[in-house]
């Protein structure tokens, strides 16, 4: 999974109908031990995340199936699955 | 998913027959908070997108299944699933 | 999908038997609006592509299933699915 | 698979319930023959790995299915599947 | 697929039991037309490859299923599926 920060929102009215009702958030990747914000992508929110929050994002086909299980297919390849309380890195860093 | 801009079209007559009828568009990745246009790739259009429009693109196997559901397999790994109205980034950026 | 140019061929006699009979081509990624040839990888050919041709390549698990459908599994993660006639980029580029 | 070093832990109380009970570890990629620590990501632990240990991580949908088999879907795209005893590189390096 | 060179071996006694019996090899990516050795990763061997050999590696979920077919799931995302005899690049390179 990827650590990220929610930095914005996307509005898209003309879209695949199976995306209707999902919040689309712009996420910037976080690398705690390194420079922040390497990549930006769009994820659907499943846990009520808001702009500015640090989040846990699952990527690829695991994201498309978690939304609905294997049978109903939603065109999603990134889903926010957790809001991060703390990230603790080993002392020596 | 990836934010992108449609920058061109691809014509391919000798292709896998299951791609017949799909519009093939060249998309440039957009990173609103950063430099524009990092990568280019080809996506099939499913929402009537045109050159110059900002779009939402799903990548990987979620793209191949959304076209037809799990049973019929189309050789696609990127599909445009939304035309973006607005991208709002947090004020502090 | 990725736009690429076929730049060579691979010969491998000691290989997974399910790859027998497939032409293995070295492909260089093309980014029409940018520097050519960023990455190189190997793809199986499904449309009769030759060295020097511009091709459309599907990547990841969509490639492995297009070869045979979902039941028979071939160890493939990149397949050439089209020979490109033209790539037209928006005038302003 | 990726060689990595566990460099920290993530705590997330508001998360997808199917992640409950899994240890979330921050992993830094290791490239033995090159610069250490190129990327950071989060993986679930399945073998009792701890901070500072060198680990073997499987990525993508293979990670989501190994947790539970194909039927129960867990939103995971990276799983630690081994604790590395030794990495031996060819002498000439 | 990726062209690579086997540069080492990994020993991991505390690992997912379904990996037992598989040889774990460190592979360095090869880009014949460009700088050698960009990335390093670990792949299971399925064709008897040894250190120093040039190999063909399938990545992602196609790798996890080729080991055993769709029903038995092995935590693998990279598998060596061929030992390369020759790579011929077009003359003009």
From TrEMBL, chains A, B, C, D, E:
Compartments reported by the entry: Carboxysome
GO CC list: carboxysome
PROSITE patterns: BMV
Keywords in alphabetical order: Bacterial microcompartment, Carboxysome
InterPro entries: EutN_CcmL, EutN_CcmL_sf
Pfam families, alphabetized: EutN_CcmL
Chief site of localization: other
Protein's UniProt name: Ethanolamine utilization protein EutN
Originating organism: Desulfofundulus thermosubterraneus DSM 16057
């Amino acid at each position: 999974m990827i650590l990220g920060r929610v930095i914005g929102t996307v509005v898209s009215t003309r879209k695949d109908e199976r995306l209707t009702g999902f919040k689309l958030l712009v996420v910037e990747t976080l690398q705690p031990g390194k420079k922040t914000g390497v990549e930006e992508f769009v994820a659907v929110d499943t846990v009520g995340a808001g702009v500015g929050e640090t989040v846990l994002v699952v990527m690829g086909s695991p994201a498309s199936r978690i939304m609905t299980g294997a049978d109903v297919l939603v065109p999603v390849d990134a889903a926010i699955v957790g809001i991060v309380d703390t990230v603790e890195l080993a002392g020596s860093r």
